[in-house]
Amino acid sequence: MDGGSSRKDALEIMLKDQNAQPCDLPLQYLREITNDFSSEQELGRGGFGVVYKGVLPNGEAVAVKTLVPMLQCQKKQFKFEVDNLMRVKHQNIVRFLGYCYETRYEYIEYNGRHVFAEKPKMLLCFEYMPNGSLDKYISEESQGLDWHKRYRIIKGICWGLYYLHNECQIKGSVVHLDLKPENILLDGNMVPKIADFGLAKLLDEKNTQTCATTLMISRGYMAPEYLFEGIISREADIYSLGVIIIQMITGHRVNPYDNVSLCQDFVEHVVKNWRNRMEGAPSEADCEHIKSFLEIGLRCIKINRKERPTIKEITEMLGRWENTYCREEEMPAANQSKRDLGADVSSLPIRSLDDELADDLELRKAAMPLDFEMWDVDEINTVSLWSY
């Protein structure tokens, strides 16, 4: 078997072997499996490129992402992203299969004369996620996403973020910086996996924050300190996670500057809506669970980033709740009223929710830029949570 043929077979081998390492892939092969990057096989597109479905000779599918060539530091940026992807491996992170970086020289006209111009082609290959991105499933009208399914998705996102912040094979932490439903993909079993590390940054063990010179993120999920000051920290991902948690529970994206949507009886209002939506007699444990998660989401979007819980604290709360829930499922029905799952949330080093929200509304007013109302509404794309 020649070298070119073996590289073409690499994807089929990798999909069968979870321990196989990502590899270099020929551009021509990626053209073949995507039908020359046909629009009919396009899965999605964004500011950084287009994603296509690739079909292997054995019928299995992969996702091929073509990156838009950047004018500055394109080689450095591409290498940085590949470096990150080569080191991350977790059940809640989209699996990276391979890369392609080839340069062609095309004969073009430039300033009145013909020259050979470099045309770099940069592509990334990932496992195929048949259920697409999370944003298609979290509206109130979504079919089949009951609370338990939403909880499992939230839990998976939390564990993926915990891995990035604490356990990945990189010295320090990976801060994703673009955590949003569009970058959370779902496999055939609706297991969530974090994707798109094009904006990710590394924070070593000594540095807990840095600063960005250019902001490239979806504003609806961007932490205020990153938006207004360019501060990059783990807490920026926590803020984005909070917006996602609230969106998963309410069906709508939070507007952090909407004082009405974040008023103090908001939690009870949302829990009441869930009681009305649940079929039959709703489980009191489920209602307490929803309340606890909504409170965690609200604390994640605190204006003061130091007051947000860490992902470690959030995952510890998940473990405590599941242990409590599993034990109490075996209790007699007479003991059901004694459940107090909200205690898990209060164990975090933070004040009562009512006091926090009252103070935080004033901080939100102070943090709002004077020209906030001039921003394009479609770019912010938020709705009041009360419309749930």
Entry summary:
The chain is 38% helix and 18% strand. By secondary structure, it is of the alpha+beta class.
Features:
ATP-binding, alpha+beta, Ser/Thr_kinase_AS, 388 residues, two-stranded antiparallel sheet, globular, serine/threonine-protein kinase, Prot_kinase_dom, 6-stranded mixed beta sheet, 18% strand, disordered C terminus
Structure write-up:
The protein has helices at 3-16, 27-33, 74-87, 147-167, 224-229, 234-250, 266-277, 284-300, 311-328, 343-346, 353-367, 377-380, and strands at residues 23-24, 42-46, 49-55, 61-67, 96-110, 113-127, 173-175, 184-186, 192-194, 201-203, 209-211, 231-233. The chain has 388 residues and is an alpha+beta fold. The chain has a 6-stranded mixed beta sheet, sandwiched between helices. It has a two-stranded antiparallel ribbon with strand order 7-10. A two-stranded antiparallel sheet has the order 8-9. Helix 4 packs antiparallel against helix 6, helix 6 packs antiparallel against helix 8 and helix 7 runs antiparallel to helix 8. The radius of gyration is 23 Å and the shape is globular.
